[in-house]
Amino acid sequence: MTPAAPLVTLGLVDAAFSGFRAYAGRDARIRKRAAIVRSALRGLAVGAVLLLAPAVTAGTVLLTADDPALAYAALAAGGAGYLRPLAVYATTVVLSLAAYFVLPFRVSTLAMVVGLGPLTLLRPLAIVAACLGALLNGGGFTSLLVGSVAGGAVLCVEPIVHRRWYASVVH
Amino acid sequence: MIRQLEEHGDHRAARIVASLPTGRDDVLDPHAVDRLLVGVHTELQRLSEELRIGERLVHLLGPLLAAVRAAATPARPLRLVDVGCGLGYLIRWLAATHALGPDVELIGVDLDAALVGEAARLARAEGLHCRFVHGNAFDLPEAATVYVSTGVLHHFRGPALAEFFRAQASSPALAFCHYDIAATRLAPVGAWAFHRARMRHPLGRHDGVVSALRAHSDEALLRAAAAPGIRPLLYEPRGMSNPFCTTLRPVLGIRPHLEAPLRRALGRASRRLVGPEQLAEVVR
Fold it and tell me: Closest partner residue to A30 among B46, B126, B193, by Cβ?
């Protein structure tokens, strides 16, 4: 099975969370569920556009390769290697989120302080680990290129959404 | 101001202030400062939301108000005053959730006019039943039943901390409950990571770490809160709580006759409520 589908799914989910993070801390209202959903959708939309960049890069690699089958195999291997560290990261985030929302406030503080807070800071490192995973799994330079473009794209979602919609306090 | 900060060795704070816009006479632009404070406090509210500060307070204020209601004869209106309320997140959250019951009047007080104005605007926008006052919380025309605060105590240095508690002890208030950063070795590191991840402006990030460094120890808080006519208590002191789960913990001061009903209302959780004599045992 090609790793493209889970990678795209992870990228889009991350984009939605990035949209929320771009908005968080800009709206001091108490009731703001609709605004939170809107920010996630904005992140999703920006992420969907930005994720075209690695798709185009991968397409160019395949179209310009001497042996497209070999290039596809390398990209598939690199994608699988890229996916593994991200899957570990995503699982940790999901577990932290579940603990935060389900458990009482004391344990939810633990999930926030030990999990969700530091995990936000670790996002660039997760991308670096994914790129290394792509290389180590035999993806070669082309996988590293596509992985770097994809990593750059997902890291750009939050600043773009923030600058476009949430540069100042929401009134 | 920059010179003062440099003299105190806080070079980062000096750089932050130096980057703020000034007028022709080199005085900070008051409108820019107001905008910045509102922005930073809005980000700060995100931390309160994520750390569920409202629920944390209700966990203790619920039983405390139950004890006050049980002891008050005849019944009197209950008034909760949030000292240094900033954008009034706690008061607005309590008003939105009705967590303390309809008989509790909610008032936020702050010395900063811009923050109070924004708090009042936010409350109006959401139709919340609460009030915000610009001024000194101890000069209100109506007496508070309970004074509360979150993240304010570390601003008081030296004798000012004990004076803050004495002002409440000498008022008609029946209790106070002030949450502040738990002074642990982990606090400054945790504050750095958390504020780095969640705050955008350098002022908010720097303030988070400096606040953790300035946090008062459990012993210092209990000593300062021991004002005449007040029984000082600490909830979840160091040694009785996991520092990862208790980033903020409260110091309480209650009229002595309220201690027994408060402990009854708290039930099993009252084990976590200690006075100065028990704190010595916990630390040992």
Answer: B126
The residue type of B248 is L
All structural domains of chain B with their residue ranges: 1-37, 38-283
Q: For the segment A92-135, what is each residue's pLDDT rounded down to a tens digit? A: 999 999 988 998 888 888 888 777 888 999 999 999 999 999 99
Say if residues B246 and B182 touch (Cβ distance below 8 Å): yes
What fold is seen in the domain B38-283? Answer: Rossmann fold (3.40.50)
Look at A112 and B50 and tell me if their CB atoms are within 8 Å.
Answer: yes
Dig out the tokens for B162 from the structure: 């004990």
Q: What pTM was estimated for this model as a whole?
A: 0.91
Would you say B133 and B109 are in contact if contact means Cβ atoms under 8 Å apart?
Answer: yes
B203/B209 Cα distance (integer angstroms): 10
Nearest Cβ partner for B87 among A28, A112, A117: A28
Question: What does the domain layout of chain A look like in residue ranges?
Answer: 4-165
Q: Which of A129, A122, A120, A121 has the alpha carbon at shortest distance from A148?
A: A129
Helices (H), chain B: 2-7, 11-18, 30-50, 53-71, 89-97, 113-125, 159-169, 186-198, 202-214, 218-225, 259-266, 276-283
Indicate the average pLDDT of chain B. 92
* Dihedral angle over CA of B30, B31, B34, B39, nearest 10: -140
Of A28, A108, A118, the CB nearest to B42: A28
pLDDT, tens digit (0-9, with 9 covering 90-100), for B90-128: 999 999 999 999 999 999 999 999 999 999 999 999 999
Dihedral angle sign, alpha carbons of residues A122, A128, A134, A138: negative
Identify the band that residue B284 occupies on the pLDDT scale cut at 50, 70 and 90. low
C-alpha distances (whole Å) from B43 to each of A158, B32, B202 are 16, 17, 12
Nearest to A89 by CA among A5, A4, A10: A10
Report the gap between the CA of A26 and the closest CA in chain B (Å). 6
Strand B175-181 vs strand B248-254: parallel, antiparallel, or unpaired? Answer: antiparallel
**Distance in Å, alpha carbon of A34 to nearest chain B alpha carbon:** 14
Q: What is the pLDDT along chain A (171 residues), one digit of tens a residue?
A: 789 999 999 999 999 999 999 999 999 999 999 999 999 999 999 999 999 999 999 999 999 999 999 999 999 999 999 999 999 999 999 999 998 899 888 888 888 877 788 899 999 999 999 999 999 999 999 999 999 999 999 999 999 999 999 999 988
Among B113, B143, B135, B147, CA closest to B230? B147
Q: How far apart are CA B184 and CA B244, in angstroms?
A: 10
